[in-house]
Amino acid sequence: MAALRVCYQTMEFDNVDIHVRTLRDNQEFSDDDGIAESLGISSATWPLFGIIWPSGQVLAHLMFDYKIAGKRILEVGCGIALSSLVLNHRHADITATDYHPEAGAFLQKNSDLNGGKNIPFVRTGWEDKNSGLGKFDLIIGSDLLYERGHSIMLSEFIDKHANPHCEIIIIDPGRSHHASFSKQMVSRGYSHQQSRPEHIEYLKAPLPKGQILRYQR
User: Fold this and answer.
1) Nearest-CA neighbor of 11 among 65, 49, 47, 56?
2) CB-based contacts of 71, cutoff 8 Å, min separation 6
3) I want to staple 142 with a disulfide (CB 3.0 to 4.6 A). Which of 56, 70, 152, 163 is the partner?
């Protein structure tokens, strides 16, 4: 694999530091064996998993003090998995998934950087039939709805892995597909609420159209 340029950052959550190894920027690319290409991941989209995006920061800060006792938690489309790292610090029962072939290796490295236990990771797509993930009480994700077809695919994936009583939290930066996703979730029997993120002074830039999407059944 061609050498990737990475950087190390420390994300602050009150008095807790979470250390992360990310790609240096969104121009990095390495797919010598064509694995990502075979999965339909282009050179343009390849680096997106390896950057900490504002929506991911909002989700991680929300998870820092969220009620998690007794809940089995799934992070969907985790990318660098900042929220999973925060939850792992809190000794949560957290599993992470992503379609990208390098996401698991970055998650392992970042778990080691923070001295935490290994976070279970499954590389799976939303249309995969047998991921082996099982069911969850809380399903979370950030900035997942960036293509038209994602509303149906994601809602079906979530419904497949949601316990009869389940909470879902998706942070959306204001993309145009979140309304159709909410319609899909409501049609599957989930209640729906949404609100604007508050107290986001930790972001370098505002999230003017950002929404916290919440679903429950």
Assistant:
1) 56
2) 92, 93, 136, 137, 138
3) 56
Tokens describing residue 39: 């999965």
- Could you tell me the two tokens for 103? 């996401």
Structural domain contains residue 109? yes
Q: What's the CATH number where 95 sits? A: 3.40.50.150
pLDDT of residue 142: 98
The model carries a pTM of: 0.97
Beta carbons within 8 Å of 7's beta carbon, 6+ residues apart: 21, 22, 23, 24
> Are 80 and 56 in contact, with CB atoms under 8 Å apart?
yes
* CB within 8 Å of 66: residues ≥ 6 apart: none
CB 80 within 8 A of CB 22: yes
Sheet holding 136-142, edge to edge: 121-123, 93-98, 72-75, 136-142, 162-172, 211-216, 191-195
| 79 located within any domain | yes
Task: Name the phi and psi angles at 30, rounded to 5.
Answer: -160, 115
> For position 148, what pLDDT does the model report?
87
Per residue in 66-121, pLDDT (tens digit) is 999 999 999 999 999 999 999 999 999 999 999 999 999 999 999 999 999 999 99
Helices (H), 13-168: 35-38, 54-63, 82-89, 103-113, 150-161
Predicted local confidence at residue 2, as pLDDT:
61
